[in-house]
Design brief:
single chain, 26 strands, binds flavin-adenine dinucleotide
Length: about 400
Amino acid sequence: MTAPIVIVGAGQAAASFISRHVALGGEQPVLLIGEESHPPYQRPPLSKKYLLGELERDRLFIRPLDWYAEQGIETRFDTRVDAIDPGARKIITANGDEIEYDTLILCTGSSARGLPDAIGGNLPGVYRLRSIADIDTMSPEFEAGRRLLIVGGGYIGLEAAAVARQLGLEVTLLEMADRIMQRVAAAETSDYFRRLHSAHGVKILEASKMTRLLEAGGRVCGAELESGETIDADIVLIGIGGSPNTELAEAAGLDCDNGILVDETCRTSDAHIYAAGDCSNFLRNGQRIRLESVQNAADQGDLIARVIAGEDVTYTALPWFWSDQYDCKLQIVGLNLGHDSTVIRPGPNDDVMSVWYYAGDRLLAIDAMNDPKAYAFGRKIIEDNKNPPKEVVADPETDLKAIAKS
Ligand SMILES: Cc1cc2nc3c(=O)[nH]c(=O)nc-3n(C[C@H](O)[C@H](O)[C@H](O)COP(=O)(O)OP(=O)(O)OC[C@H]3O[C@@H](n4cnc5c(N)ncnc54)[C@H](O)[C@@H]3O)c2cc1C
């Protein structure tokens, strides 16, 4: 009997692989192994509607549990894979089971970084936000009037800040860099979101480094900053980014460097092993890059199913991303890496605008705030490699649709 395709990590990339494998009528058996108790689910609502209490847990699941069995997909949840033996082509689970594979797909995702225990990272009342279990433990603490301190001004911290304000908590957000979103966006986008959160009563402290969390009565009670200032808090949420889950791959001798290195077909340095999603580091326009986004995980999972089915395809998808904060929908297309200038395209009011990133005259990416047209037409413009002059984009009278369709 042929050994199965084994997938390690039951998340977004795994679900996408399975959907395409089934759609292509793939006959090779598939075994999906995940350490969480759930079938693959969407993580984006965790810091948005699920935390807000506006989305039922069942709505998070990408497919209902029964679907997998109906499609002949074998699943094992609550099961951690501890090791890979690439020579023998088998994996070893935490409870000692050894399972042979024909092809192995690593979809192990990333982990939310924490703070060292020595500075209070493990105190009761300190949370991270990555999984359903994280939210289910944290959300009972989200009561109106309580003081939430968020460490980190990236997407997850800002989304959680928005939910917390909607639930009536007092929110302070600390960012060590000079501005929130510094790692991911231009200053104009940071300015937009600083304005938005300040208007909703979030106290944002930028260029503010936390030195340690403070404890009283056996739980966190605040934080001390490098300046000597202290901030009182009832709950602390750490949102300082993610690290790729590469331990398995590294121990198995696969090439890794900020993720599991894959080629343009998502194959790792071992011909029988693929990697997809947050854990993979791939080549794009000659540059190595690792993305943490639904689009990337879904497109890479999908691609691997096609490659295994014998299609001659490579990974060239245009990255896109979104974030929801209060009533603002941010949509991003392209990658702003290497930009040397930005252009603002104003909207009819202050809530609507887009930021266009250029490298020389080449358009790389767009951040569209409450501007679905700038996103949709901009996306088409980038896909078609059109590079409208900056002054044309900056003119609110310019018809983007006409450029996209030209
Ligand atoms: C709170 C939050 C909000 C987000 N919001 C957005 C958003 O708005 N837009 C967007 O595009 N992206 C968003 N993302 C990112 C997006 O959810 C991820 O990029 C995506 O889930 C990655 O999919 P993946 O399959 O690589 O990993 P995951 O979906 O994380 O799945 C990986 C799974 O592998 C399991 N695993 C790891 N190691 C092992 C092992 N050894 N054995 C067994 N199982 C293992 C993990 O427990 C996990 O269940 C958000 C992420 C979070 C956490």
